[in-house]
Amino acid sequence: MATLSSLGVGTGGIDTASMLTQMKAAEQTRLTPYTNLKSSYENKISAWGKISSALATLQGSVKKLSGEAFNTLKVSDNKAFSATATAEADADAHDVTVMKLAVSHKLRTSGYEDASKNLGETTGTTRTITITQKNGKELKVELADDETSLNQMAKAINKQEGDVRASVQRTDSGYQLVLSSRTSGTEGEMSVSVQGDDTLGALLNTQEGGRQVNADNDDAVIPGEAGANDGMISVSRAQDAELKVDGIKYTRSSNNITDIIEGVTLNLKAVSEEGKSEQLTLSVDNSAIKSTLQDFVKQYNALLTQTSASSKYVPNDASGLSDDEVAKPNKENGALMGDGTLRGMVGEIRAAVNSAYGDGNADYSSLTSLGITFDSSTGQMTLDEKKLDEAIADSPDQIGKMFKDHAGNQGLASTLNDIITRYTGDKESKTDGLIKSTTDTLDEQVKRVKEQIDKTQKLIDAQVERYRVQFQNLDTTMSQMNSLSNQLISLLSTV
User: Fold this and answer.
1) 324: in domain
2) For position 2, what pLDDT does the model report?
3) Do 296 and 427 lie in a common domain?
4) Are 138 and 213 members of one domain?
5) pLDDT for the residue numbered 11
6) Which pLDDT score, from 0 to 100, does residue 465 have?
7) DSSP letter at 239?
8) What is the reported pLDDT for 221?
9) pLDDT confidence band for 1 (50 / 70 / 90)
10) How are beta strands 127-133 and 138-143 bridged, if at all?
11) Which residue has the higher pLDDT, 48 or 13?
12) Is the distance from CB of 201 to CB of 141 less than 8 angstroms?
C-alpha cells in the first residue's frame, strides 16, 4: 500500500491539511502572552527614550539660564577693530587705540622667464635649503640637481607641511617664488640659507628680512634699509601688533587678541584714524533673557506633553461583555501608565518650577511673577510676553538671582539641572541615571521573554509535527480501510 507523501483530502476522504492548519494556529496562540509582554517592555523602552530626549533638550535651556542668558553682552561696532564676548566678560567700556597691525613675513625672488628651469649648479650631489623662523621653527628640504626650478622648490617646501607656505606667482617681470610665514608678527620672521650650491644660495640666502627694492626695479635697492645683501626681496616685513587699551600699551604677534580684556577677543582690522582711540562698549543684552525663557517654556511643555502621553490612562470598555467576561486594558493607554519612576520625576519637576527662589523680599522670585502661569491639570506653562518684558526692563538682576545660585542657595536652574541629571545621568562624570537603570532592566526582561518565545516556538513546532505524522497515519489507515471495504463489496457481489 502506497504512503501519502503530503497531506490533503486523501483517499480517506478527510481534509487533514485544513485540520493541521487550524491546529497549528491554535498552538501559536500559546505565544500571545509572551509577544504581548515583549511588546509592552519594548514600548516602555521607547517611551523612556523619548522622555530622555525631551529632558536633554530642556536641560540645555536650563543650563543657559544658570549663566549665559544673563551674561550675554552686546558689543559695539568699531572701525579699527571688532570684538566678541563670552560669558566670562563683564559689561564695561574700554578705550582702544590700534597703532600697528601684526603682519606676516613674506619674501620673493626676482622674476624668471621659465618657472621650470633649474637655477642651481650641476654638482652631482644634493643641496639643502633651510628656512628658519625667529621662534625657532626650522624647515629643511634637500634638492637634486634637477629639482632647483621655482616649481620644484615650491613643491618640495610645501611637501614638508611646515610653518612656511611656498607658491610660484606669474608677474609682469616673470615668475617668482614666494615664501609666506604662517606665523604672524616678528616671531614668524624668516631667514633662508642654502648649503651645497653657491649659485642657488646667491639667489635665496636671506638673513636680514629681505632686500627693500624700488617698486619698479628689483635691482634698485633702497639705501639705508636692512637686507641690502639678502638674495630674496621683502614683500612684507614681519611686524607685531601694537595697541593701547585704557591707556596701557600692548604688543602682540597676532591681530586676534584674547588676553587683554577677560572674556573678550579683539580682532584688529586697521590702524586707528589719526591715532585716536575708539570706545569698546559691552552692555547686557536683555533680549537673551527673554529668548532663553521662551525656549525654556517651550521645552518644558514639550516634556510634559511627552510624559502625559506616556502615562495616559483610558478606562476599559466593558460594553457588550457578559457578566463573567473581564474587560481588557484599553490599547490607547500610555506605555508607562502607573509607572512610579515617571510619576516621581514629573512630581519633582513640577514642584521645582512652582517654588520661589532668590531674595525673599524681591519682586521677582517665582515664574508666576515673570508672567508664566500653569494649567492646574496638565501643568503646561503659558507665557505672558508683555509681563515678561516689563519684568526684564524693571530688574534683570533679580531675575538672574532667581535662576542662578545666590547667597548659598540654589537657584531654579541648578535645582532643575540636578533633578534632570539624577534621571538622565551625567556624561562628564560617567554616571548613569535612573532612566538608564530602568531601561537596562527592561532590556534584560525583553531578552528573557525572547528566550521563552524561542523555547515555546520549538515546542509548538514539535507538537505540530506530531499532529502531521498522526494525520498522515490516519489518512493512510483510512485509505487502507476504504480499499478493504471495496474489496469486500466486490467479493460479495460475485456470490
Assistant:
1) no
2) 37
3) yes
4) yes
5) 46
6) 85
7) B
8) 67
9) very low
10) antiparallel
11) 48
12) no
Check pLDDT > 80 for residue 88. Answer: yes
Residues 60 and 109 grouped into a single domain: no
In a domain? residue 92: yes
* Domain membership of residue 95 as a residue range: 73-101+240-284
217 and 152 share a domain? Answer: yes
| Category of 109 on φ-ψ map: left (φ > 0), alpha (ψ -120 to 50) or beta | beta
Helices (H), 312-433: 340-353, 385-394, 396-403, 412-424
The tally of domains found in the chain comes to: 3
| Cβ partners under 8 Å of residue 464, min gap 6 | 20, 23, 24, 27
**478 and 415 share a domain?**
yes
Amino acid at 163: D
Task: Provide CB contacts within 8 A for 67, sequence distance 6+.
Answer: 87, 404
Side by side, the strands of the sheet bearing 92-100 are 73-75, 278-284, 92-100, 241-245, 248-252
Q: Are residues 457 and 339 in the same domain?
A: yes
Q: How far apart are CA 470 and CA 475, in angstroms?
A: 9
* Plot region of 263 (φ>0 → left; ψ -120 to 50 → alpha; else → beta): left
CA–CA gap between residue 357 and residue 364 (Å, rounded): 9
The CATH number of whichever domain residue 114 belongs to comes to 2.60.40
Q: What SS3 state is found at 373? A: strand
Q: By mean pLDDT, which of 111-120, 422-431, 435-444, 484-493 is the weakest?
A: 484-493
Q: How confident is the model at residue 320 (pLDDT cuts 50, 70, 90)?
A: low
Q: What is the pLDDT of the chain when averaged over all its residues? A: 89
3-state secondary structure of 426: strand
| Pair (477, 377) in one structural domain | yes
Residues 40 and 17 in one domain: yes
Instruction: Label residue 3 by pLDDT band (50, 70, 90).
Output: very low
With respect to residue 328, please indicate whether it lies within any of the assigned structural domains. Answer: no
pTM metric for this prediction: 0.65
Q: 118 — phi, psi (to 5°)?
A: -70, 135
pLDDT at 162 over 50: yes
Residue 83 lies in a domain: yes
- Whether 98 and 255 have beta carbons less than 8 Å apart is answered as no
Q: Which of 3-17, 18-32, 194-208, 368-382 has the lowest mean pLDDT?
A: 3-17
For the beta carbon of residue 236, count every other beta carbon within 10 angstroms: 14
For the chain, counts of helices (H) and of strands (E): 11, 19
C-alpha cell at 158: 610645501
Count CB atoms within 10 A of the CB of residue 183: 21
Give the CA radius of gyration of the chain: 42
Taken as a whole, the chain contains a residue count of 495
